Amino acid sequence: MAHQRTTWLLLLSALLIISVAEASHASNDSNAYAERRLRQILLRSGEYDAKERPVLLSNKPVDVEVSMAMYALISLDEKEQVLKGASWIIMEWYDYRIHWDPEMYGNLRFLSLGMDDIWTPKILLTNTASEKIENPIQESVFRALASWDGNVTLEGPIIHETSCEMKMSHFPFDRQNCSLVISTQNTPKCIVNLANGPATRIVMNEATSQWQALNFTAETTAQEFQYKAYSKVIFYLVVKRLPYHYLLNIALPSAILTFISLGVFWLTPESGERISMAVSLLLGQAVFWLVTAESLPPTGGEGTPLLLDCIEYNFIVGGLAILLSVVTVGLQHQPGPLRGRFRRKLFLQILPLVVCLQSRGRGKVNDDDSRFDEKDEKLKMTSDMVKIVSLSDKDGRVIQKTKGYSNVDVSRNGLDDMKLVAAILDRLFFLVAAIIFTCGNVKLIACLVHGM
Q1: Do 142 and 249 share a structural domain?
Q2: Is residue 71 within 8 Å of 32, Cβ to Cβ?
Q3: Count of structural domains, the chain
Q4: Where is the Neurotransmitter-gated ion-channel ligand-binding domain (predicted)?
Q5: pTM (2 decimals)?
Q6: What is the C-alpha separation between 406 and 399, in angstroms, rounded?
Q7: Which residues contact 418 (CB under 8 A, 6 or more apart)?
């Protein structure tokens, strides 16, 4: 009897072990094909229509959240007014038809689906600058990730070229605000409602060679067209230009050439190379301008760029150096003394003090000087005036004395009056050119200091 009982116990133990093994094997088989079974159940024909919107009530829209993470700023063309970049776009919505219990499918919580398997929103980049307008969401690149609770996420990378209205008045210290406008493809707001998502951000770690991204935000708006409202999400990218390339390669050489042009006014007219030096410096600036013109942005309705203003002022200073040098050289070689009591007082006494230039050998301008001027005009005295006065002295004429010097001394000094006038005008012209040069470049320097 005991032997039979032991035999039955062994048989029951064996049957129990076999049952547990078969159940475990069946469970493993079930987990192995859980994704296949889930896909077949969710997307079986006749129950899921990819063309039908995932809403319970037909008069309700599908709420789609759109986010964008920009990870590369490829280029920003000032001439074409085009922004080219690379971003990761994310779209999220709720599909009530995609639901399952993870415990029934091997604890499977997410399912990767193709765009043609389920309903996906159709969007357009409306301010695109590319020749071909198309949906930026490509089926070969994007995949949908469905969650067990019905939330669907569609994400992938895009390369976008969009128009960007640029304001160049503060170039090269300008900041630009470019936008990317995403809207539904001929779908009113009552059918598909777009909203900006929480994942909008910049993921660029370093600035490019010319631009630094500052901010990337989004807002949702609606546009009325033919009595219908269309929702759209506008992404704003704020970038700041890095000005050091333009300052070192354009602004600094132009300023150095102009600063050297100011030295022309300190050369004496007798040197003979004064005008040729001014012409050479102006030609150097013209050649430099032709070389660098391609790298500068075109002027627009927002005003002349700051850097171009500086270059224009530098050209004006270079042109004035030539024109005013011609004036002073002409006065330098004009024969005879300076005529007119007022002009002699102005150029021989007042202006030398103003420009810190000493008037050697010239005393106070008085009535004797005026009589000398009248006598000089009557006799048409030139450079041999001293000889004519000496002949008059031999004939018995008395030489009049005026406060420590004679009319003969005055006439001898009068031969150098025009040289003194030319030297005075040189310093006055230098001050005028220096003021123009400073006014033209002070804004650029102030922006550089403020930017630091």
Answers
A1: no
A2: no
A3: 3
A4: 37-242
A5: 0.73
A6: 7
A7: 331, 332, 333, 334, 335, 336, 337, 338
